[in-house]
From TrEMBL:
Enzyme Commission number: 1.1.1.306
Cofactor(s) named in the record: Zn(2+)
InterPro entries recorded: ADH-like_C, ADH-like_N, ADH_Zn_CS, GroES-like_sf, MycoS_dep_FDH, NAD(P)-bd_dom_sf
Keywords: Metal-binding, NAD, Oxidoreductase, Zinc
Protein's organism: Georgenia deserti
PROSITE patterns in UniProt: ADH_ZINC (PS00059)
Domain called Alcohol dehydrogenase-like C-terminal: residue spans: 193-331
Family statement drawn from the similarity comment of this UniProt entry: Belongs to the zinc-containing alcohol dehydrogenase family.
Domain Alcohol dehydrogenase-like N-terminal: 27-152
Protein name, entry field: S-(Hydroxymethyl)mycothiol dehydrogenase
Single GO MF descriptor: mycothiol-dependent formaldehyde dehydrogenase activity
Amino acid sequence: MQTVKAVVARAKGAPVEVTTINVPDPGPGEALVRVQTCGVCHTDLHYREGGINDDFPFLLGHEAAGVVEAVGEDVTGVAPGDFVVLNWRAVCGKCRACKRGELQYCFDTHNATQAMTLAEGDDAGTELSPALGIGAFAEKTLVAAGQCTKVDPSARPAAVGLLGCGVMAGIGAAINTGNAGRGKSVAVIGCGGVGAAAVAGAALSGASPIIAVDIDAAKLETARRLGATHTVDSSRSDAIEEIKRIAAETYEGAEGADVVIEAVGRPETWKQAFYARDLAGILVLVGVPTPEMTVPDLPLLDVFGRGGALKSSWYGDCLPSRDFPMLVDLYQQGRLDLDTFVTEEIGMDDVEAAFDKMHDGSVLRSVVVL
Ligand code: APR
Ligand code: ZN
Ligand code: ZN
């Protein structure tokens, strides 16, 4: 067992604290990872606010890169010294989804078996709930070996670690879920960290035009840098009309975009995305709605009449073993700009400040460097 520094949310709504935790030696199927970087994601804030469940205390952080320090029995996929990006979907290989070859839907993903615990205070010894089964705002963390994907060790950890959650969700929403590609138009509504990544994914796929929509001019500027061919400020103009107009400029007769990605997570923007699709277009919901939000009331005939598909994208339908190494290689080759997503590098003490910046929209990602 080792004792290391970590960022913990002890109670609902209370500010996070930097404290010490105990990390067990890896047992069968587990890996101990020396964390180098970990991005701050909306989900960490949801945990702290009690919006996910009440299993406090939480060990936050889940968008991480690091080096494997030790592995337990039966681990063959990774070894000490490997540079890895962590994922929160270690597939089981045995469930119905896995057996039919749809590993991205695995119904039985797993995490480390042993618990990390608080090391100081009155509640020392209390088991921690790691955010998304990772808990990487910590100098070291214990995960299932299947949560580690080996990637090019010369890549910048702060950039490639973001593939562990939000950036992969966006890229995957475009490429995996939306099946964006040559000959297709893509519109992305909401260009925060996730939507901007969807724009980058659409650009990688060869799709054109790529229409970025946001109400914040700075986000649109970033989207353009990542590959958007057109931008729409929907606080000033009608997003649906603009998407239709731009798509038709390239593809005569098009009544909207072939793939529309909703990366805000609100009914209004989902409805915009619905009506901004061309016939047979795909609508991808990747923004995460709150429990009280409902699907907007739509004429069923409008659903029927357009054909296509209404989809949701969970972790960008990614397969970490397939997608992480490929995307890291594209980054290393200068074909995928991940550095743009790293707005700032911060210390463990700055996580609360990073949550505030999330609200004011001034950053794509704050990344804790350990
Ligand atoms: N129309 C267009 N864009 C909007 C609108 C709107 N009505 N309202 C908000 N936006 C934009 C914001 O300006 C911001 O750029 O949506 C973007 C949201 O981005 P972030 O807050 O950075 O969130 P992000 O990390 O990208 O996640 C987006 O996916 O993972 C989920 O919980 C997350 O629901 C959130 C969504
Ligand atoms: Zn499975
Ligand atoms: Zn996340």
